[in-house]
């Protein structure tokens, strides 16, 4: 009886060993189930479009479906919080914005996550230009002429429209004002479409806002673009100078997007995702899709993203403090 029990026990152990090995290998293989890409804004906008491009590329390269999950609210904080509190296993990712990564922490009194400590950076993914544009009735044709005109009119005598207090267009203008030494009145709208409508009608003379909605009207001549906020000229407006080359070297105020995961996500998973997304930024088909969405590719590894976000945090903290913007 004793020998029989012992023999069965040894046999069970012998059978279990390869099964456990296979189970351990299955656990180690990543990914082995569907991933979720949380997009912290509603469907249809640039953030959503870029999230879907990133998700599709990862679906193809990882061999597992990456599902986009739109969770909007509080300038992206609602979606970012979901990712911050998700298990750090590589199956929940964030398509983050300059807001979720940097500026929101200076604009909200209470943050549901730490912009740095709650996440591990994976890769930069895209950027978009802000454009300084005017109604053609405004008697300026260059950035220098705009600054001179605003100074002559006096502080806050000239207005500009943007869709949000603390939005990328507003902060870009605050940054520009601090460098150029002039002040304009900020007229806040509920969306870029309303800014565009009043700018075309001449109710406001100028705007600093995300380029895509304004591009057709600039190309038609209905609006005049004076400069773009990116570090180099924008692919869709190659004849429009950057603000940096118009007398303000180093000026760079482009909204950007990135991919991140919850803090504690294993390093090997972060590297795999980072490597794939860096390759995506060089893929002609991905680049075309990003540019068709009105943005531009912006490649950068996990390490590149960490350094970039640290520098952006320093820059935008100074801008918000100089503008005396009170957290809401």
Structure description:
There is one protein chain. This protein has 328 residues and is of the alpha/beta class. It has two domains: 31-128 and 255-323, D-Maltodextrin-Binding Protein, domain 2 (3-Layer(aba) Sandwich); 130-246, D-Maltodextrin-Binding Protein, domain 2, CATH 3.40.190. The chain has eleven helices and eleven strands. It has helices at 2-28, 46-62, 77-84, 98-107, 143-153, 168-180, 192-201, 215-220, 267-280, 284-292, 302-323, and strands at residues 35-39, 66-70, 92-97, 119-127, 130-134, 159-162, 185-188, 206-210, 224-228, 256-262, 296-300. It has a six-stranded mixed sheet, with helices on both faces. Helix 2 links the parallel strand 1 (35-39) and strand 2. Helix 2 packs across helix 9. The longest helix is centred in the N-terminal third of the chain and has 27 residues, at 2-28. It comes from Enhydrobacter aerosaccus. Belongs to the UPF0065 (bug) family.
């Amino acid at each position: 009886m004793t020998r029989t029990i012992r023999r069965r026990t040894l046999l069970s152990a012998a059978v279990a060993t390869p099964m456990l090995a296979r189970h351990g290998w299955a656990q180690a293989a990543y990914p082995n189930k569907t991933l979720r890409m949380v997009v912290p804004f509603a469907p249809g906008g640039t953030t959503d479009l870029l999230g879907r491009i990133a998700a599709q590329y990862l679906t193809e390269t990882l061999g597992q479906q990456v599902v986009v999950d739109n969770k909007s609210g509080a300038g992206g904080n609602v979606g970012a919080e979901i990712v911050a509190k998700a298990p750090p296993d590589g199956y929940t990712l964030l398509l983050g914005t300059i807001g979720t990564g940097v500026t929101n922490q200076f604009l909200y009194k209470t943050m549901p996550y730490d912009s740095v400590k709650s996440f591990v950076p994976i890769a930069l993914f895209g950027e978009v230009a802000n454009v300084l544009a005017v109604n053609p009735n405004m008697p300026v044709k260059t950035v220098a002429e705009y600054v001179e005109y605003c100074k002559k009119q006096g502080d806050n005598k000239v207005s500009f429209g943007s869709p949000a207090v603390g939005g990328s267009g507003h902060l870009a203008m605050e940054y520009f004002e601090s460098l150029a030494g002039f002040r304009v009145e900020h007229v806040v709208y509920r969306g870029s479409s309303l800014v565009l409508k009043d700018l075309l009608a001449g109710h406001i003379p100028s705007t600093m806002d995300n380029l895509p909605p304004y591009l057709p009207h600039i190309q038609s001549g209905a609006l005049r673009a004076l400069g773009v906020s990116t570090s180099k000229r924008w692919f869709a407006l190659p004849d429009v100078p950057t603000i940096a080359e118009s007398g303000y070297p180093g000026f760079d105020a482009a909204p950007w997007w990135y991919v991140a995961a919850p803090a504690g996500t294993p390093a090997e998973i972060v590297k795999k995702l980072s490597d794939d997304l860096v390759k995506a930024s060089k893929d002609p088909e991905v680049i075309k899709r990003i540019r068709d969405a009105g943005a531009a590719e912006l490649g950068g590894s996990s390490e590149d993203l960490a350094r970039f976000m640290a520098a952006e945090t320093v820059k935008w903290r100074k801008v918000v403090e100089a503008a005396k913007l009170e957290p809401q």
